[in-house]
UniProtKB/TrEMBL annotation:
<feature type="domain" description="Blue (type 1) copper">
    <location>
        <begin position="59"/>
        <end position="137"/>
    </location>
</feature>
<dbReference type="InterPro" id="IPR008972">
    <property type="entry name" value="Cupredoxin"/>
</dbReference>
<keyword id="KW-0186">Copper</keyword>
<protein>
    <submittedName>
        <fullName>Plastocyanin/azurin family copper-binding protein</fullName>
    </submittedName>
</protein>
<dbReference type="Pfam" id="PF00127">
    <property type="entry name" value="Copper-bind"/>
</dbReference>
<dbReference type="InterPro" id="IPR000923">
    <property type="entry name" value="BlueCu_1"/>
</dbReference>
<keyword id="KW-0479">Metal-binding</keyword>
Length: 139
Protein backbone atom coordinates (compact mmCIF):
# COMPACT_ATOMS: atom_id res chain seq x y z
CA UNK A 1 0.00 0.00 0.00
CA UNK A 2 1.24 3.42 -0.87
CA UNK A 3 0.60 6.27 1.56
CA UNK A 4 0.84 9.55 -0.23
CA UNK A 5 -0.49 12.14 2.22
CA UNK A 6 1.21 13.15 5.43
CA UNK A 7 -2.02 13.25 7.45
CA UNK A 8 -2.13 9.54 8.13
CA UNK A 9 -3.58 7.90 11.25
CA UNK A 10 -1.46 8.00 14.41
CA UNK A 11 -0.70 4.33 14.14
CA UNK A 12 1.32 5.09 11.03
CA UNK A 13 3.37 7.87 12.60
CA UNK A 14 6.32 5.59 13.17
CA UNK A 15 6.16 4.63 9.52
CA UNK A 16 5.95 8.29 8.53
CA UNK A 17 9.13 9.09 10.40
CA UNK A 18 10.91 6.84 7.98
CA UNK A 19 9.47 8.73 5.02
CA UNK A 20 11.85 11.61 4.38
CA UNK A 21 9.34 13.37 2.13
CA UNK A 22 6.91 13.92 5.01
CA UNK A 23 9.60 15.20 7.35
CA UNK A 24 10.71 17.56 4.59
CA UNK A 25 7.14 18.80 4.08
CA UNK A 26 6.80 19.63 7.78
CA UNK A 27 10.16 21.37 7.78
CA UNK A 28 9.28 23.41 4.73
CA UNK A 29 5.91 24.37 6.18
CA UNK A 30 7.56 25.61 9.40
CA UNK A 31 10.12 27.54 7.38
CA UNK A 32 7.46 29.11 5.17
CA UNK A 33 5.39 30.10 8.22
CA UNK A 34 8.50 31.84 9.53
CA UNK A 35 8.99 33.56 6.16
CA UNK A 36 5.42 34.83 6.29
CA UNK A 37 5.99 36.21 9.81
CA UNK A 38 9.05 38.01 8.50
CA UNK A 39 7.00 39.41 5.64
CA UNK A 40 4.34 40.76 7.98
CA UNK A 41 7.01 42.22 10.23
CA UNK A 42 8.71 43.98 7.31
CA UNK A 43 5.69 45.19 5.37
CA UNK A 44 3.06 45.56 8.07
CA UNK A 45 0.53 43.17 6.57
CA UNK A 46 0.29 39.56 5.35
CA UNK A 47 1.61 38.80 1.87
CA UNK A 48 -1.88 37.70 0.78
CA UNK A 49 -3.09 41.28 1.17
CA UNK A 50 -0.93 42.65 -1.66
CA UNK A 51 -3.16 43.99 -4.41
CA UNK A 52 -2.76 42.73 -7.95
CA UNK A 53 0.16 40.40 -7.30
CA UNK A 54 0.81 36.98 -5.83
CA UNK A 55 3.74 36.99 -3.44
CA UNK A 56 6.44 34.34 -3.23
CA UNK A 57 8.91 34.86 -0.40
CA UNK A 58 12.59 33.95 -0.58
CA UNK A 59 13.89 32.79 2.77
CA UNK A 60 16.64 30.53 4.03
CA UNK A 61 17.36 29.08 0.57
CA UNK A 62 13.73 28.28 -0.15
CA UNK A 63 10.88 29.76 -2.16
CA UNK A 64 7.55 29.95 -0.30
CA UNK A 65 5.31 28.52 -1.51
CA UNK A 66 7.64 26.19 -3.32
CA UNK A 67 4.84 25.09 -5.66
CA UNK A 68 2.39 27.69 -6.85
CA UNK A 69 -0.52 27.58 -9.27
CA UNK A 70 -1.76 30.87 -10.73
CA UNK A 71 -4.12 31.80 -13.55
CA UNK A 72 -2.54 33.08 -16.76
CA UNK A 73 -1.91 36.83 -16.61
CA UNK A 74 -0.88 36.74 -12.93
CA UNK A 75 1.99 38.89 -11.80
CA UNK A 76 4.16 37.12 -9.27
CA UNK A 77 6.23 39.24 -6.91
CA UNK A 78 9.23 37.54 -5.32
CA UNK A 79 10.28 39.18 -2.08
CA UNK A 80 13.52 38.51 -0.24
CA UNK A 81 12.63 38.34 3.46
CA UNK A 82 16.04 37.08 4.56
CA UNK A 83 18.16 39.18 6.88
CA UNK A 84 21.48 38.93 5.03
CA UNK A 85 21.38 36.57 2.06
CA UNK A 86 20.78 37.81 -1.47
CA UNK A 87 19.00 35.75 -4.09
CA UNK A 88 18.09 35.98 -7.77
CA UNK A 89 15.55 34.57 -10.18
CA UNK A 90 16.19 32.52 -13.27
CA UNK A 91 12.94 31.91 -15.15
CA UNK A 92 14.65 29.57 -17.54
CA UNK A 93 11.49 28.40 -19.31
CA UNK A 94 10.62 32.01 -20.12
CA UNK A 95 14.03 32.50 -21.72
CA UNK A 96 14.61 35.50 -19.46
CA UNK A 97 18.06 36.57 -18.35
CA UNK A 98 18.84 36.13 -14.65
CA UNK A 99 17.40 38.93 -12.51
CA UNK A 100 19.61 41.30 -10.58
CA UNK A 101 20.65 40.16 -7.14
CA UNK A 102 17.81 40.79 -4.71
CA UNK A 103 19.06 41.96 -1.37
CA UNK A 104 16.91 41.68 1.78
CA UNK A 105 13.53 43.39 1.31
CA UNK A 106 14.03 43.79 -2.45
CA UNK A 107 11.53 42.42 -4.94
CA UNK A 108 11.26 41.14 -8.49
CA UNK A 109 8.08 40.84 -10.54
CA UNK A 110 7.13 38.80 -13.57
CA UNK A 111 3.78 38.42 -15.33
CA UNK A 112 3.07 34.91 -16.62
CA UNK A 113 1.33 34.99 -20.00
CA UNK A 114 1.93 31.41 -21.15
CA UNK A 115 0.06 28.50 -19.57
CA UNK A 116 2.12 25.53 -18.45
CA UNK A 117 4.43 24.26 -15.75
CA UNK A 118 7.73 25.81 -15.12
CA UNK A 119 10.61 25.36 -12.81
CA UNK A 120 12.61 28.39 -11.78
CA UNK A 121 15.86 28.78 -9.93
CA UNK A 122 17.76 31.01 -7.57
CA UNK A 123 21.02 31.73 -9.43
CA UNK A 124 23.44 31.50 -6.51
CA UNK A 125 21.65 28.71 -4.60
CA UNK A 126 19.90 26.28 -6.88
CA UNK A 127 22.85 24.00 -7.25
CA UNK A 128 24.29 24.10 -3.76
CA UNK A 129 21.06 24.46 -1.72
CA UNK A 130 18.43 23.20 -4.16
CA UNK A 131 16.70 26.58 -4.04
CA UNK A 132 14.21 25.75 -6.78
CA UNK A 133 10.56 26.72 -7.23
CA UNK A 134 7.66 25.57 -9.39
CA UNK A 135 4.92 27.61 -11.01
CA UNK A 136 1.93 26.17 -12.78
CA UNK A 137 0.22 28.73 -14.97
CA UNK A 138 -3.33 27.59 -15.63
CA UNK A 139 -5.17 28.74 -18.78
CU1 LIG B 1 18.93 32.09 -3.21
Amino acid sequence: MFVQACDVPAILVSVMLTLPACAEDAELKALCDEAESRYTELFGHPSSEEEGVTVVTMYKYRFCPQDLTVPVGTTVRWVNVDKRTSHSLILKDEGEPESDRLFPEETFEFTFLTPGDQTYLCGPHWETQEMIGMITVSP
